[in-house]
Amino acid sequence: MKKILVFAAFVLGFSFMGIAQNKTIALEQTKGEFTQKQIVVDEGTYVFEVSNNGVGHDVGFVLVEKGKDVSNPDNHIQTAYVTKAVATGAVQTSNPTTLAKGEYVYFCPLNPTSTDNTLIVK
How many helices (H) and strands (E) does the chain have? Predict the structure, then answer.
């Protein structure tokens, strides 16, 4: 029984380590725009945290590699979608999303915001 408890604690510890390695990128939307126009981060796994500050209706989040057609859902990085539409005054998060070096654009088709917002991964 003691060995089982030690093994369970070991596995649980590694699970928490994996969760702790995810970093958060916080983004705020106001009417028609993101307040952050450009973000620079290191390669890694991130969770996007999107807040709706007075837009007046639900908003979302779309991330696409720069240069790809943003209107084609096949190009969207779907793990970066918020898991639920973000109501006014609320905050929602995405699933963990691994970002490789490169440039990405982000936008909200529900707000709608510009597709000129840039995420640079170095």
Answer: 1, 9
